[in-house]
Amino acid sequence: MRTDLAVIGAGPAGLAAALAAAAYGLRVTILDAAPAPGGQFYRQPAAGLRAGRPQALHHQWRTWERLRDALAACDAEILTDHHVWAVECGFTVHALHGPGRQESAAVRAEAVLLATGGYEKVLPFPGWTLPGVVTAGGAQAMLKSALVVPGRRAVVAGTGPLLLPVATGLAAAGAEVAALVESADPKAFVRHIRALAAKAPEGAGYAARLLRHRIRFLARHTVVRAHGEHTLTGVTVAALDSGGRVRPGSERHIPCDTLAVGHGMLPHTDLAESLGCRLDGHTVRVDGEQRTDVPGVWAAGEATGIGGATLALAEGHIAGRSIAARLRSREPDPREWTAAATVRGRLRTVARGMDAVYSPPPSWTEQITDDTVVCRCEEVTAASVRRAVGELGAGDLRTVKLLTRAGMGWCQGRMCAPAVAGVAGCELTSSTRPFARPVPLGVLARQHEDTTEEGAS
Amino acid sequence: MNPLDLAGARPGPAFTVTFDGRQIEALPGQTVAAALWAAGITSWRTTRRTGRPRGIFCGIGVCFDCLVTVNGRPNQRACLVPVHSGDVIRTQEGTGHED
Asked: Are A312 and A301 contacting, i.e. CB atoms less than 8 angstroms apart?
């Protein structure tokens, strides 16, 4: 299949870009792993559940309706249930689809937009591998798409703006939310009030909802341990002092069967890295037009920096317009996207303010006992990581991995890299992965045949 | 209020699947993980090295903690795989290839 623009990811950034580019007459193909467009933010209930009021689980539903209707009215092709595992230079987008994800699809495109989104960062603590402990975003995803909650009594904990909708969403869906445990210090908001003033009404809305659902809000607190033998039975939380350390004697036990926990978001950068796009830290570097430094590759949304759906929409819109002009060999006129650029500038400032407020407590590694599993796939304990550093002299993430197997399992370090780096006391460096998803060997073996056949036809 | 009522869901008729031989009900459109959660089950895997229980963690197909055996095929991500009537779901022990 040939197209002008391949958009990878059907969340806010991808859809905004696809709509903007299609409006200028480009042939656009959108690929997404989910059964329906929307991404994580506009994640939809499964069609078979026939939800009459999906907006009860969402914010900014009107925006979603506009995106959905515009998508239906435009010529962009959308390939759902397509799991993109690689993008070849040139460009060929490779995806897996079908039952069991054994069938391969290839889309050839003149330009690629990476709208790959992000996923949740979770820092470990004793007991975090117990069933019943889930990521805050995971609890929300299961609620939005499958209309299920994990248990009856939940604690929501960690740090970041996501915890508020998760706690109020679980409560609205019938779970008892015993506490929202946020490690950030409310005083930090005051220090960043200029950047975060725009967020105040939203914050007030959540405060009202917390009150309505009688959710206890424990600011400057952290979970120090999850309890249970085969499943979660409760958590111990403790207060943090002004230096971010657990205040001795402040521990208290909260019985619960669910702990939804998260410490911020990480961008999905696998495809960008394998294409050779330069990163700034952990995010894809883009210019004012959302171009990466690889010609023909644009990026928008969480992949270029965690900042939320509205920022993703603005970035996607700019990218789509830029792509439409560049593919027609025309220099784009930034005046075409003045409004979007203003939103982008303002929301990037907000995002920096949020980052400063919601950083995990500096002492988080002190709470990790030696027997705490740090790498969930390979069951590598904190003791092994500490031994690799202390006795064996590992000084970077890659050496720790080679000595302990931390990050060598199924998820390829996506979940554990921040934890391992933290426990090892080394820098969190990106690890280029050749495949963005696991690929059956049979599919790889057939790649050459497929290419040859196409070339001959 | 439960989540189905909150979203005004009117799913088609429930159907039966088995989990470790026990019959549970599932709804059209649910994933394997959703059906198990709805039945009050949060653990369906034991780890390769220490045999510890696991279930859903990330919920969006990143972490691989929710691996499960469905109709004899191990290593299926329960959070991504749709559930079908008559599915035989089993706790996956270790790699799932030694049963």
From this structure: yes
